[in-house]
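Protein data sheet
==================
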Amino acid sequence: MSDDGDGCTEENKLLAAEKWSSWAELRTGQAYPTDFHRAWKNVLFNQFHDILAGTSLESAYEDARNMHGEAMTIAERGLNYAIQSISWHIGIEQEDGMKPIVVFNPHAWESTVNIELEIGGIKDTTILVDENGRCTSNWCNLRQRLAADIVLALLPSCRPWGTGFIRC
């Protein structure tokens, strides 16, 4: 997730971390992180009007920076643990030389998106297949070699709050 200039990076990251952590707890049994409350306290404290308006003392900005860093670290760690737990529980049959790529749909609606990723060892003859082993013409024709190790692909529909994967 990136900050689109609205200053809500912390909130967006924490919301994503909480959602995926809840999903991971329900689906995989991964323990829900206990430190999200501390991250939210840091985020909300930093929304105090003197900090936002730029009228605080320098020490307040140092504290705000440190609290922001702690909140982002907690969110990133929680999100990473959840995503890893979910990924480990996806039944992908291993094949020699295969590179599975898991894609997460954080929306409440079905989504079809272009993905761009850096992955080594992609050859011009490499094909991308979906989780059902199909290489649909619209998907494979959009696959492009953008740079030495960058691939652009169209992901087939990914169910709401779900995952999909491609293999190359």
Summary: The beta strands are 100-104, 114-118, 129-130, 144-147, 150-154, 163-167.
